């Protein structure tokens, strides 16, 4: 269960409707990485997790780079998840000097340079959180009152660290980090609530009610606040889905409208809900009409309308979006048009997706059952190109048909992926022999509904 907790301090996946930051003029970055395992350290965005630069160390573990053209904000130096990570704050005309030892995760790095206090704060905060995780007991076994007190104190200690830098760092950055700390507590308490089986005390509930759902500044700037708000969608959908999955998306829209009064935040949350539910909602028109009725923000109304029109292009009978020259596990180049003449059932997956891996035995069983029929079962992997060998190895390990295993050209950012609105995997898509859509969100291979669907076709 600790995994749920750790993720709140590392890679928060949901990014709030964040305003585009200006490109930085330059940041002069000097790194002394003692005992580095590799001669190359990756610099990647803390928010998107995308690599932006390789930093090459000399034989003494030193590097000096001028970073230009990067968006202002937080970046991480490291080698994936296997080695120590150090934060860098990139902003105009700053010099950041970092010295650290790869062999000791709990030893704070030495930070220096002009305009580098945000970097110093981030790394002091990281060491504080790492020490808490390393020395703390299994907090998930606490009773609710003790759990709440532990994290209220954790919040106070985190704010005390930030307070030391208040008058030395950018005011908006300070305000954002205050929000990150406070809503980090709400996120953790929400995690606890989702797994706790007993009745929560009134003090626990009251603490959660202190959250301000109308904070436009944090919605635009704080990833943690954005994650908290996004989680509220998930909690609401789970609650309403227990009674009626069909009307659940409409009820979530109603709740957003009732709970949020700020025009921008409400518009953003309604837009998020539309994107979350529209693809697999039966009555898409009703959901869109609800969105249009409640959304008063012009920016999000336009965004939601565009999304709705794009999704409606995926209705049964519509021509499928296409891909060209995707590589198969045998090295062949395959385009969607090459698959015409048969029904095609796409299994959209990746080697890093645990639920996808669980589906593999079922898809192999289905493929065997319908062997010789007029249908092709095609695996479409969204692994990164750099992980091609890993993908091929798993195809071989799992005994998949290599000829019908394809690798998307740009992972989840591929045009085919974007046009199909594939935000999460596994996802299954069924096309007819002419390349038209039968079902853009077909049942999973593990669900009996898939056989019902396939048996209804003239295979």
UniProtKB/TrEMBL annotation:
What residue stretches are annotated with the Thioredoxin domain? 314-459
The keyword Disulfide bond is annotated on this UniProt entry: yes
Cell location: Cell envelope
- Lineage: superkingdom: Bacteria
Which controlled-vocabulary keywords does the entry list? Answer: Cytochrome c-type biogenesis, Disulfide bond, Redox-active center
Q: What is the protein's name according to its record? A: TlpA family protein disulfide reductase
Organism expressing this protein natively: Flavivirga spongiicola
């Amino acid at each position: 269960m600790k995994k749920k907790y750790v993720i709140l301090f590392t890679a928060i996946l949901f990014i709030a409707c964040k305003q585009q930051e200006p490109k930085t003029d330059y940041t002069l970055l000097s790194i002394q990485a003692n005992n580095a395992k590799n001669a190359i350290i990756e610099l990647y965005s803390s928010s998107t997790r995308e690599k932006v630069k390789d930093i090459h160390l000399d034989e003494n573990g030193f590097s000096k780079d001028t970073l230009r053209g990067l968006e202002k904000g937080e970046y991480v130096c490291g080698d994936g998840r296997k080695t120590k990570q150090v934060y860098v704050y990139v902003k105009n005309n700053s010099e950041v000097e970092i010295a650290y030892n790869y062999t000791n995760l709990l030893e704070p790095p030495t930070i220096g340079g002009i305009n580098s206090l945000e970097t110093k704060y981030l790394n002091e905060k990281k060491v504080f959180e790492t020490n808490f995780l390393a020395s703390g007991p299994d907090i998930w076994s606490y009773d609710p009152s003790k759990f709440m007190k532990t994290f209220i104190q954790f919040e106070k200690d985190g704010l005390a660290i930030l307070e030391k830098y208040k008058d030395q760092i950018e005011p908006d950055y300070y305000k954002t980090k205050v929000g990150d700390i406070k809503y980090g507590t709400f996120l953790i308490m929400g995690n606890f609530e989702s797994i706790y089986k007993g009745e929560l005390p009134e003090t626990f509930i009251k603490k959660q009610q202190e959250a301000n759902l109308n904070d436009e500044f944090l919605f635009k700037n704080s990833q943690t606040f954005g994650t908290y708000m996004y989680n509220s969608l998930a909690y609401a959908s789970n609650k309403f889905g227990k009674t009626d999955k069909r009307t659940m998306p409409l009820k979530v829209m109603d709740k957003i409208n009732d709970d949020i009064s700020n025009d921008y935040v409400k518009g953003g949350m309604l837009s998020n809900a539309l994107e979350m539910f529209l693809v697999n909602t039966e009555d898409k028109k009703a959901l869109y009409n609800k969105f249009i009725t409640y959304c008063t923000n012009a920016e999000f109304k336009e965004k939601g309308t565009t999304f709705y029109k794009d999704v409606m292009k995926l209705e049964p009978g519509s021509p499928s979006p296409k891909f060209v020259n995707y590589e198969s596990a045998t090295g062949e180049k395959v385009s969607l048009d090459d698959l015409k003449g048969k029904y095609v059932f796409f299994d959209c997956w990746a080697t890093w997706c645990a639920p996808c891996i669980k589906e593999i035995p079922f898809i192999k069983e289905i493929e065997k059952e319908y062997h010789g029929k007029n249908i092709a079962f095609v695996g479409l992997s969204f692994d990164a190109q750099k992980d091609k060998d890993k993908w091929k190895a798993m195809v071989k390990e799992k005994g998949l048909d290599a000829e019908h295993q394809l690798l998307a050209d740009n992972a989840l950012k591929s045009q085919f992926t974007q046009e199909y609105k594939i935000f999460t995997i596994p996802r299954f898509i069924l096309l007819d022999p002419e390349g038209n859509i039968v079902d853009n969100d077909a049942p999973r291979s593990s669900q009996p509904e898939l056989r019902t669907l396939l048996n209804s076709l003239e295979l």
